[in-house]
């Protein structure tokens, strides 16, 4: 399971900056608060979270969803240490260090929250990358499970192969500090559900 160790330009409880890019900042908190409040009704028993960052989403998943098992993958070693400390306070949290794509995950989840930072681009096109990720996610979800990710901006939300897309709400929040240091106050609460092909009945 490959992990990486990076030298951050800035790393504290409010911001992560690496190579001149904002990996995550506390300005995302209001959006994530709205997102997990709106999706709390899903009440997932098992949750997979990809990308720990500042731990904002992990705290809110615990607070609003209260899963009995909450697996979190973090690829960067220093951030993983933050995750280990977080897990000590939450018995349902299981921390994993490394690339989720290279890990032998043998569970199926009710809810996946996918928010990794792309430290090492795959080298393949965005379309192929999205299709590859969607295929892996579908294999990790229960048939009626939900895949969720942040969506910044007021543009179209890309569909994922073999998933339906549900836009729960579009809203404005206090300005979020983006990777390139622009700001964004348009966001969407969105999730995807796997399309389960059922054999057609004979006529």
Topology readout:
Blueprint lengths: L9 E2 L3 E4 L2 E5 L3 H11 L6 E5 L5 H9 L4 E6 L2 H13 L3 E5 L11 E6 L11 H15 E8 L2 E2 L10 E15 L5 E12 L9
Parallel strand pairs: 4-5, 4-7, 5-6, 7-8
Antiparallel strand pairs: 1-2, 2-3, 8-11, 9-11, 10-11
Helix pairs in contact: 1-2
GO biological process, one term: creatine biosynthetic process
GO molecular function: guanidinoacetate N-methyltransferase activity
InterPro entries: RMT2/GAMT_Mtase (IPR051038), SAM-dependent_MTases_sf (IPR029063)
What would your notes on this structure say?
This protein has helices at 29-39, 56-64, 77-89, 126-140; strands at residues 10-11, 15-18, 21-25, 46-50, 69-74, 93-97, 109-114, 141-148, 151-152, 163-177, 183-194. Strands 4, 5, 6, 7, 8, 9, 10 and 11 form an 8-stranded mixed beta sheet that branches. A 3-stranded antiparallel beta sheet has the order 1-2-3, with no helix packed on it. It has 203 residues and is α/β, with parallel strands linked by helices. The protein has one domain (25-194): 3-Layer(aba) Sandwich (Rossmann fold), CATH 3.40.50.150.
């Amino acid at each position: 399971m490959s992990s990486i160790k990076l030298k951050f330009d800035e790393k504290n409880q409010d911001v992560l900056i690496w190579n001149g890019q904002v990996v995550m900042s506390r300005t995302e908190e209001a959006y994530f608060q709205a997102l997990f409040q709106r999706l709390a009704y899903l009440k997932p028993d098992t949750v997979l979270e990809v990308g720990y960052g500042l731990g904002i989403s992990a705290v809110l998943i615990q607070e609003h969803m209260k899963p009995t098992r909450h697996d979190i993958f973090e690829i960067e070693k220093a951030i993983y240490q933050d995750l280990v400390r977080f897990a000590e306070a939450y018995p349902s949290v299981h921390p994993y260090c490394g690339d989720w794509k290279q890990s032998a995950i043998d569970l199926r989840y009710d809810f996946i929250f996918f928010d990794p930072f792309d430290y090492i681009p795959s080298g393949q096109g965005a379309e192929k990358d999205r299709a590859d990720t969607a295929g892996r996610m579908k294999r990790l979800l229960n048939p009626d499970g939900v895949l969720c990710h942040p969506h910044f901006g007021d543009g179209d939300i890309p569909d994922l192969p073999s998933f339906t897309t549900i836009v729960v709400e579009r809203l404005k929040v206090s300005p979020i500090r983006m990777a390139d240091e622009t700001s964004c106050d348009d966001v969407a609460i969105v999730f995807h559900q796997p399309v389960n092909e059922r054999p057609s009945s004979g006529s």
